[in-house]
Amino acid sequence: MSLLDIRNLSIYGRNDTDEAPLVDRISLTLADGEILALVGESGSGKSLVAQAVLGMLSDEWVMNAERISFDNIDLLHIDHDSHRSLLGEDMAMIFQDPAACLDPMMRVSEQLLESMPKTTPWWQLGRRKQLQSLISMLHQVGVRDHERLLTAYPHEISAGLAQKVMIAMAIARRPRLLIADEPTIGMEPSTQGQLLRLLSKLNQLHKMSILLLSHDINMAARFADRLAVIYCGQVVEAGPADAIINQPMHPYTEALLASTAAGLCRQPPKTPLPELRGGMPRRDHLPIGCRLGPRCGYARKACVTMPELTRSKVRDYRCHYPLNQRIDVDEEDA
Ligand SMILES: Nc1ncnc2c1ncn2[C@@H]1O[C@H](COP(=O)(O)OP(=O)(O)OP(=O)(O)O)[C@@H](O)[C@H]1O
Ligand code: SF4
Ligand SMILES: [Mg+2]
Fold it and tell me: Which residues line ion ligand 3, judged by CB < 5 Å?
């Protein structure tokens, strides 16, 4: 049984009744102890999927889904308070905009202490030992000058430090599921490596499952067991990370990989992909048929019909003319 099971999730703008959904029938599963990365360009719908799982979609969105469950708990019909308490204990989120998620009126130290586990041993530690434990956690996420940080208010710290504080708060209680939305964006490569090693360790030692959201397919493939590539709100390819990175079946995955090779993963997320013509279409101007059609160098006549997701044991792809198709057959036979 999957720890997280999302089936046919669609998300629409509340007032966009005539437009295509921003997230279109997405299905994802995450096993206990697994790392899955949802990868795609800016605006592809990654954060909306996370918000739907966490019950945090704002009123401007409407969603429908066949199923969203966590540890077999039906999140589609759970009451608000129970959803919130799951989020505090078993699920945690590293938000894409950490500074906006910190309370501007509270010192960073108070917010960190609040996020620490509420178990008996923790409260028995006493204030001094609690602080020591907190400081050790801050060092693990790459904070060097903890003294200045602990006395500061959120507006007095940099965006990078706020990101590290948010990461420390998210992993403090060792959640069973961590959703990490661009957790390393803007970090120096050495800090990025340190953080990914820490998350891998938590995954291996404590079986913490991770749903990583990222525009950097190369980083995601090094870290995750499986990848799901998303374009314009649709999953276009999914499968084992190694297989996808070595033999992509979808032209969009190929373009993402090529831009990584060109070093673009180190560019800000809204940088257009040079391997594809133009940019991602607006949802009120989606092409007929395959959503990648106007940008795809492999497009042919059949592409005016929307390709459905073809599912196999190990790889899923949404393309009439998949690349490396033979590989799919070989992998299934293996
Ligand atoms: N508050 C909002 N109001 C209007 N449109 C929005 C809002 N938030 C997101 N969108 C739109 O929804 C779509 C999906 O957005 P989402 O934030 O999920 O993308 P993303 O893949 O997380 O992108 P990024 O990598 O930039 O974070 C985009 O087209 C975006 O413009
Ligand atoms: S279906 Fe056609 S346009 Fe779409 S990705 Fe495949 S080849 Fe390109
Ligand atoms: Mg996002």
Answer: 46-47, 96
